[in-house]
Amino acid sequence: MREPDPGHVRIRVEACGVCHTDAATIEGQYPVSYPRVPGHEVIGKIDALGAGVLGWSVGQRVGVGFLGGSCGRCEFCRGGDLVNCQNQELTGVHHDGGYAEVMIAKANGLVSVPTELSSVDAAPLLCAGLTTFNALRKSPARAGDLVAIVGIGGLGHLAVQYARHMGYEVAAVGRGKEKVELATSLGAHHYIDSSATDPANALQKLGGARVIVVTASGGKTVQDTFRGLRPGGSLIVLGIGPEPVAVAPVDLVPASRSVEGTLTGDPAAADLTLRFSALSGVAAMIEEVPLEQAPEAYARMMAGKARFRIVLAMAPSAG
Q1: Domain that holds residue 209
Q2: In what side-by-side order are the strands of the sheet with 190-193?
Q3: I need a surface site. Which of 18, 99, 102, 160 has the fewest CB within 10 A?
Q4: Global pTM?
């Protein structure tokens, strides 16, 4: 135990999500100074304030996401783009994360947690929820537009819910007929089985998507769905994989379509994600696991066996 540095707080962790990005720390994909505690979907209560911390109080429940705090002085911060801060601290990479009972966090990276959300329910919304919610919120789609969600997994099952509650006509794109019931229960108006039909043609039969959000990794996934956009439509890539994204210029230029990527969001967007989730009832499908079983939980997640998010709880049903 140590006291928090100026501008930081100490948090008693109540819950922490297990995310695929944790592999970058655990398997050395990032330049990390070991030993390092992973975990960046953290919910807990402040139990100590460092010097100069304003606006937060001891006992307050807060969240900590992947972006652990911007510098406030670089070109991007000065322009209001906190996500692309050039001196951004990454939780669980540059400093210890939430696979622990206690952690230290930078105060300007903290997120407010609504009382309506339990700590276990809120944790995965700080990464999977924030990433999908913010992508949809910032997209050019408007209520009533057709929006396609490609992949119904850890990200996709939340994206479908957010899209439905934002007032879009939602088409879920997955592989196999067995996902029809799940997609419908999450709020999808349409389900497209990409193993049985061309998803781009299926989307065009529905009038063409204003936005396609690709939550699954793989360049071929983008290629197979891109032509499903209506003219002026935008495809947003969330899933990261080694395959390059290939889009034919004839599909891109004449119809003025676009491809873009987006990474998580700043603390204000995270605040909004949690508030919207509490108001709308959007929730992740969660497997709750005690902290002592973190290695087993991580292995299960990496093996693709989680349905759909695993959350480490420091005490049963934390929050």
Answers
A1: 130-261
A2: 190-193, 169-174, 146-150, 209-214, 229-237, 258-261
A3: 102
A4: 0.95
